[in-house]
Amino acid sequence: MGGCIMRRKTDHQLVHEYIAGDIHAFNLIVRRHERNMLGVALRYSRNECDAEDIVQDALLKASRHLYGFRFESKVSTWLYRLVANASLDHQRRRKAEYTVSLDDNDELSQDKDPRLAHDPTAHLDRLIAVKDALRVVPEAHRKAVFLIDIMGMSLQSAADTCGVQPGTMKSRRARARAIMLEHMEGAC
Q: Which positions fall inside the RNA polymerase sigma factor 70 region 4 type domain (predicted)?
């Protein structure tokens, strides 16, 4: 066996090599500690996909700040601290995304993109008032409002459905709206 025995480089040696410009040294550090870093991230996230994102964030910070490593601790300890900090940052971001305000203003937080936001309670008061007002409208008039305003039928189609002239349907709808408005103003 008189051959040369290849000695495994220490983490500190790899850091020195990375600082000197050897990017492969950082790859060796990553390969050496990635599994344990993922384990730490999993303890915080309990989700493998999020844990991988956390490790990526930590490795990005490590690659940027390894030049400032002080060699006062193990590289593994420093990396795990970066993972812990990245995990806490990740938790804060997720908490901010899903926080619902319970303040007195009763507003629910909306999605970041207002086109995707849906607040089912936004028009609830108006919906209840309209339903209450519809109850006092005679059935023939209520049917006119329902077919035209709610179902979106044309005046002619609604009239054909009810077997009346379009003018009759138009007047029933107008009368229904007037009764509803009167009822809603009285309720206020």
A: 129-178
Using CA atoms, how far apart are residues 76 and 64, in angstroms rounded to an integer? 16
| 8-state DSSP, 5 | P
Model-level pTM greater than 0.90? no
d(CA 33, CA 38): 9
Calculate the CA 161 to chain-centre distance: 45
Q: By C-alpha distance, which of 31, 8, 9, 15 is closest to 70? A: 15
H/E stretch holding 99 reads none
Choose among 29, 31, 30: nearest CA to 16. Answer: 29
Tokens of 168: 């009759």
Tokens of 169: 């349907």
CA 21 from chain centre, in angstroms, equals 40
30 within 8 A of 37, measured Cβ to Cβ: no
| Cα→Cα distances 126→122, 132, 133, 186, Å | 9, 10, 10, 14
32-82 pLDDT, tens digit each: 999 999 988 988 887 888 899 999 999 999 988 888 888 888 998 899 999
